[in-house]
TrEMBL record:
EC code: 2.1.2.9
Top-level division of the source organism's lineage: Bacteria
Formyl transferase N-terminal domain sequence ranges: 4-181
Keyword Signal applies: no
InterPro entries: Fmt, Formyl_trans_C, Formyl_transf_N, Formyl_transf_N_sf, Formyl_transferase-like_C_sf, Met-tRNA-FMT_C, Met-tRNA-FMT_N
Catalytic activity field: L-methionyl-tRNA(fMet) + (6R)-10-formyltetrahydrofolate = N-formyl-L-methionyl-tRNA(fMet) + (6S)-5,6,7,8-tetrahydrofolate + H(+)
GO cellular component: cytosol
Protein name: Methionyl-tRNA formyltransferase
Domain Formyl transferase C-terminal: 205-302
Coiled-coil portions: none
Length: 312
């Protein structure tokens, strides 16, 4: 039976690992990132892939460096026919890419060559795309630039955020992997090169990506917020303190509403704020050092009046 080396770290990779095992593939080892401290108490926490692998009874390797000679020797001793990676989080050295006879296949959450990089799901949502998908490619040293083995599209729903879209793409990637892998190993698939002229990039999210610019259009702000949900959230300032914004909708009426960031309406359904174009309803917010709450409750509790501005 074919020996597979699996490499992945977050929850996105778990469905693919489980699908391989369920389909009867021999996963010789699972490689994931080392446990890292999380939370205020900095308690060491295992990656999602480690937890899943242990539940499946699979050996787990957690090298600090994939270029380490001892780790590479372990891979040689394992002698995998193919490696499969999904959001592992590190660039693999050429020596490792060359070890499996059938190469290393990567499950990437975009329709390459669009959105190469670390945050394809979030950047796709920020850009307001209505379609994305999964690409399985043969890995090369260049970032997400390897030849395409298979692709499948997925519609982005209006209610999707980074959490829901990640879950749906993870399931699609798992299904596509188990469909493609037998044909890839049998030599039935001829990968096609990516069109470099169409390449776009999805760099990692940074703190500045979370800051809301009220001069942007309401739809652009709404797309940014849903791209950051449920993990980071967008933020603005109110009375000099940070206010996180978790859930919004775009006001259906068009036209001029007021100065960007101006609070226009406070009512039970939410708080309406003017944007550079259009206006945005805030439904769920989180004041600094507080829990999430309904926007109307926040506004009433702070005695916010129309005409006040966010962003200051």
């Amino acid at each position: 039976m074919t020996n597979v080396l699996f490499m992945g770290t977050p929850e996105f990779a778990v469905p693919s690992l489980k699908a391989l095992v369920k389909a009867g593939w021999k996963v010789g080892a699972v490689v994931t990132r080392p446990d890292r401290p999380v939370g205020r108490r900095q308690v060491p926490s295992p990656p999602a892939v480690k937890r899943a692998a242990e539940e499946l009874g699979l050996p787990v390797w957690q090298p600090e460096r994939v270029k380490d000679g001892e780790f590479l020797q372990r891979v040689r001793d394992l002698a995998p026919e193919v490696a499969v990676t999904a959001a592992y989080g590190r660039i693999l050295p050429q020596e490792l890419l060359d070890l499996p006879p059938r190469g290393c296949l990567n499950i990437h959450a975009s329709l390459l060559p669009r959105y190469r990089g670390a945050a394809p799901i979030q950047r796709c949502l920020m850009d307001g795309q209505d379609r994305t998908g999964i690409t399985i490619m043969k890995m090369v040293q260049a970032l997400d630039a390897g030849p395409i083995v298979a692709q499948e599209e997925l519609a982005v729903g209006e209610e999707d955020d980074a959490g829901t879209l990640t879950e749906r793409l993870a399931e699609l990637g798992a299904r596509l992997l188990v469909d493609v892998l037998p044909r890839w190993l049998a030599g039935e698939i001829e990968p096609r090169e990516q069109d470099e002229s169409l390449a776009t990039y999805a760099p990692p999210l940074r703190r500045e990506d979370e800051k809301i610019d009220w001069s942007q259009a309401a739809l652009a702000i709404h797309n940014r917020i849903r791209a950051l949900r449920p993990w980071a959230g967008g933020y603005t300032l109110h009375r000099g303190k940070v206010l996180k914004i978790w859930r919004t909708t775009v006001e259906e009426r068009t036209g001029s509403f007021g100065a960007p960031g101006e609070i226009l309406v406070v009512e039970r359904s939410g708080v309406l704020v003017a944007a550079g174009a259009g206006a945005l309803w805030l439904h769920q917010v989180q004041p600094e050092s507080k829990n999430r709450m309904e926007a109307e409750a926040w506004a009433r509790g702070r005695r916010i009046e129309t005409g006040e501005a966010l962003g200051k």
